[in-house]
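Quarterly update, task 2.4: adenosine-5'-diphosphate-bound model.
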Amino acid sequence: MPAWPGRRGDGEGRPGDAATEPVVDERTVVAALDEIPIGVVVALPDGRVLQNRRAPAMTGVRHVDVLVWRAAQEQLAAGDAEREIVVAGPPPRHFVIRSSRLSPSGAVARIEDVTDRKRIDAVRTDFVANLSHELKTPIGGVAALSDALVGEDDPETVRRLAGRIVSEAHRMAAIVDDLLDLSRIEFGSGDMEPLDMADVVREAVGQQQHTAQQSAVSVSVSVGGECTVLGDRSQLVSAVSNLVENAVKYSNRGGEVDVTCRTSDGRVVVSVADHGIGIAAADHERIFERFYRVDKGRSRATGGTGLGLSIVRHVVDNHGGTVTVRSEEGRGSTFTVSLPSSGGAGA
Ligand code: ADP
C-alpha cells in the first residue's frame, strides 16, 4: 500500500489515524492555503504566523493591504470573533474578518473581500424597492378605478373607468414583459448564430411601424456593407426595437427617425437617430439604469416602463459590443450600437 504523503511512521498512516503523528511541512500548508479563495492567517502555538498569498494581497492596493492585515492581526489575538472593516474608496471596499481559536492552541483568521456581495445585495434591494414602487401605481390605480366603478350606473362613466382600468392593466403587463425579457437576457448570452444585422434592423423597425404611423413619425432604414455578426436574433431584434420605439416615442408628431446599419473598422454599427426632445447631458449615463426616466410623465403617457435601455445595454454586453448616446435637449438623440463583425464567417 502506498505511503500517505507527509506523515511520519511506517508509511501505513491514513488521515484520522491517531496512532501516527502527522508531520506536514510549512510550505505544503501554505501551498494548500493558497488554493483557498479567501485570505487566511494562522498563528501557530510557537509564535510563527502563516498566511496564504491572498491574505496580504487581496486587494492589490498597498495601503488597503496594510489596513486589512493589521485588522487580521488584532483579530488573531482576540480569538473567536468577527468584524467588518470598510476601507474608504473610491470605491469603498468591505472586508469581513473572522477568527477562531485552534485546538489546543493557536488561532486562525479568515479574511473575505465582500465588496461585490454587498454591491449585489444593494442592487437587489434597490431593484425590489423600485419594482414595488413601479407596480404600486398601476395596482393602486386599478383598485381606485374599480371602487369607483362599483355602483356606477352612467354608461359613459362606466366606459371611461373601464378603459382606464384596461390601460393600467396594460401598463402592469408591459412592466412584467420587460422584466421577463431583462431576466432572460441577464441570464444567458443566448443562441449565437451568424446574422445579417440588416435583417435584424428591418424586423425591429417593422415591429414599431404601427406605433410610428399612429404618431405620424416616419422611419427610414439605410444599410451599407455586409453587416454580419455572431448573435442571438431575438435579443438583437429586441434591442434595436427598443431604440426605435424610443426614437418614435420621444419624437414630435410628424418627426423623422433614421436607422442606419453599416460596417466600420471590423465593427457593425447600428445607429438610431431622432430629432425629438433630446436628453440633457447629466442624464446620458443614468438612462441605462433600470426604471430611470428623465421625464416620468412622458414615459408613462407613452407606455414606457423605464426598462428599455437596460435591455439594450444587457443585450449589447452579451454580444461584446458597446452602446453610446449623443443627444442634446430639444434637438434630438442618436443611439449607436457597435458590435464585433463576424466578417461573413459562416453566413
Ligand atoms: P422608457 O420605457 O421610459 O422609454 P427606457 O429605458 O427605454 O425607458 O429609457 C429611459 C429614459 O431615457 C426614458 O424615460 C427617456 O426619458 C429617455 N430616453 C430614451 N430614449 C430617448 C430618446 N430617443 N429621446 C429622448 N429621451 C429618451
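Highlight for this quarter: The radius of gyration is 30 Å.
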